[in-house]
Inverse folding.
């Protein structure tokens, strides 16, 4: 695979002619142009009620997803999965539904249909991967054993957090906590994290300390020695954002029984198979 920054490709293409669709990236001689990315930006903005806005980072993320989708479509067609009876049945049923509902008479139908057919073609590859490499009971049991071994003898925590965007408010929140105000009251007053405000900043779930140690070392170092009911008197700072953590509860990790985790483990193993196949497609592709 020829490795080229999608962000650079986007910047160059869009700067060249902002009023016309330009080729942003080519995947094995198939072009993806800026109009496809524009459409996805619009959809995401509408679905998020304006919370997600246009940005170079968003466009690069969309470009990567479109490249992945195109690779999957190409591989599916190479394997002639779009010629299978199952595929043809899905397409014919969708055509019939479109005629019955009148969708096929809408101005955007051709574009919508191309998107739909591409999605079905990509999903045909996913189904093929999973049929060709079924996850076995032994693999699921082995994965479960690895989980139990990983967390044996470790602890998990239920944390509260107050997220702030300036040092002054962080210091005020710490001062209030030192004076004995309830953490939940302080969190509701100061946190800028709207979803957690309703819970007074307290997470509804436990998080293994081992996961924090590996995935969020700054948080782990701040909370690993906190006793129950204690908070971090020195806010954790990162990129201009300040966080105050509170230890709601700490206990030994409780790994759910096998029967409860089995569906999720199966899904995770299937996702891994799909990711491995997509990685192979990227390695073999000519992307420029």
């Amino acid at each position: 695979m020829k490795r080229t920054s999608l962000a650079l490709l986007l910047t160059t293409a869009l700067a060249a002619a902002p009023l016309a669709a330009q080729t942003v990236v080519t995947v094995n001689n198939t072009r993806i142009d800026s109009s496809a990315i524009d459409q996805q930006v619009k959809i995401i903005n509408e679905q998020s009620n304006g919370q997600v806005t246009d940005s170079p980072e968003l466009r690069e993320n969309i470009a990567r997803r479109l490249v992945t989708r195109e690779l999957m479509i190409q591989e599916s067609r190479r394997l002639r999965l779009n010629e299978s009876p199952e595929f043809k049945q899905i397409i014919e049923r969708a055509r019939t539904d479109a005629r019955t509902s009148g969708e096929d008479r809408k101005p955007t139908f051709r574009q919508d249909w191309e998107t739909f057919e591409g999605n079905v073609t990509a999903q045909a590859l996913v189904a093929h991967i999973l049929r060709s490499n079924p996850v076995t009971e032994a693999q699921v049991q082995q994965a479960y054993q690895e989980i139990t071994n990983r967390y044996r003898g470790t602890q998990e925590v239920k944390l509260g957090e107050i997220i702030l965007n300036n040092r002054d408010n962080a210091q005020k929140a710490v001062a209030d906590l030192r004076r004995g105000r309830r953490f939940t009251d302080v969190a509701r007053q100061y946190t800028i994290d709207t979803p957690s405000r309703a819970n007074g900043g307290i997470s509804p779930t436990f998080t293994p300390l081992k996961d924090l140690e590996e995935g969020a070392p700054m948080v782990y170092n701040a909370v690993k020695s906190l006793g129950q009911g204690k908070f971090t008197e020195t806010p954790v700072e990162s990129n201009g954002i300040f966080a105050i953590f509170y230890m709601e509860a700490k206990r030994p990790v409780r790994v759910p029984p096998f029967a409860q985790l089995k569906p999720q483990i199966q899904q995770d193993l299937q996702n891994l198979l799909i990711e491995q196949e997509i990685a192979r497609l990227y390695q073999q592709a000519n992307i420029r």
